[in-house]
Amino acid sequence: MNDVSEIQAGKPWYVYLVRAANGSLYCGISDDPQRRFAAHQKGQGARYFKTSPAQALVYVEQWPDKGEALRQERLVKKLRKSAKEALVASYVALG
Questions:
Q1: Domain boundaries, the chain
Q2: In angstroms, rounded to a whole number, what is the distance separating the alpha carbons of residues 22 and 7?
Q3: Three-class DSSP category at 15
Q4: Which end of the chain is more exposed for a tag (fewer CB within 10 A), N or C?
C-alpha cells in the first residue's frame, strides 16, 4: 500500500542554488539535487557553468511535486542577489 500512495502523491522535487566559481548563484530544480550538482560540476546540464564552474550546492528546498518546484524556482530567480544570499545563509545555519 505504501508504494501506491507514494506513486499517487508523486516524488518530491527540489529547488536548489549552486555557487559558481565567479561567486554567482545558479537556481534550478531537480528530483535529485546531489546528482544534478555532480552533473553541473562536470559541466553538464546547464550552459551556465561553461564560463564559471559549479563550486558548491549551497541551498536546497523540497516541494511536493515538479509543478510546485517550478513555481518556486520562478520566484527565487526573481529575487535580488542579496535575498538569494539570505536564503543561502539561512540554509547553512540549519545544516
A1: 13-94
A2: 40
A3: strand
A4: N
